[in-house]
Known about the structure:
The chain is α/β, with parallel strands linked by helices. Helix content is 32%, strand content 23%. The chain has helices at 14-17, 45-52, 119-123, 128-138, 156-167, 182-192, 203-212, 226-233, 255-259, 270-277, 281-296, 312-317, 328-332; strands at residues 2-8, 19-24, 33-42, 63-64, 70-76, 88-91, 102-106, 110-112, 147-150, 171-176, 196-199, 217-220, 239-242, 264-267, 304-307, 323-327. Strand 10 (171-176), helix 6 and strand 11 form a beta-alpha-beta unit. The longest helix has 16 residues, at 281-296.
Amino acid sequence: MRSVLLRYSKYGTPSSTIEVVRQSVASKLSARQVLLQFLAAPINPSDYNQIEGKYPIKPELPAVAGNEGSATVLEVGGEVKGLSPGDTVVPATAGFGTWTSHCVVEEGAVKRIPAGLSVPASAMLAVNPCTAYRMIEDFQKPCRGGWIIQNGANSGVGRAVIQLSKAQGIRTVNIIRDKEGAQEKKRELLELGGDVVFTSSEREEMVKFCKENTPRLGLNMVGGRETIQLLKCLGERSSLVTYGAMSNSPMSVPFGLQVFKDITLHSYWMTRWTKRNARSNLEDEMFGKLADFYKSGELTPTPHRENSFYDFTDALDNAFSRKQLFVVDKTLSDFRHID
């Protein structure tokens, strides 16, 4: 068996650094190894940063790209107890190298997830929905009818926050960038379940609304000076959780807004949480609840475009304008893939 994969041998711009490689997969498994065929794998900002050499996790080069994705177990070694052929699995930790069609790994490198999810839902389960779920659950979770405020509301995490909050009776104030198409994005997020959506320039309207509908939890993906707007809108004794820095600017936290309103600042990184809680009951419970939300239709995958590995240049160049998903079946049926 041969695998097709996307590999980089040096750090740099992803679209010019990645290459398609075909290589053989081990034909015989050791006692605790498993043979996987991947289903799909998304492009996340962390993948981009890792290929550029800017991410904290730096695999040994050359490396297969990709940190998130789902796979089917095809075969297991003689001493594997926790997995069976047909199981759907995801990487147990970051840095796996998911942009591949097939691979052989140790049993402990992957974790089984609930069955019955669509390919996009399983492939995009472990990062954005889990990040949204944990931030809602772990940092001053509002009661039913309470409010969360977030920027970056149209991101994968932001969309999951909207849906998971709505499913639990929590209301959301959502902020998006003021750019072309913003009104269409507003309508889309309201249809998704957001209670109110502001553009980043509607500052006075936002503050006025939040005085009457006070959020106690703020989620900060953008960073920079946009942090100040979240602090202005939060009530006293609230929590602000920063999990991104899409502005690429230092976070601004004025003394008065934080101290006089008694706002607690937190940081969150899903990779760190997963490392600390891998294979725990807490992780199992999270995956189970998210799977239930998917199956009920209360949570849906981020809108995306499906790609063959052979179209990696176009996918990477457009990864920040629309979610991109590498699909292995699409790759293996590609006319450029000759076995």
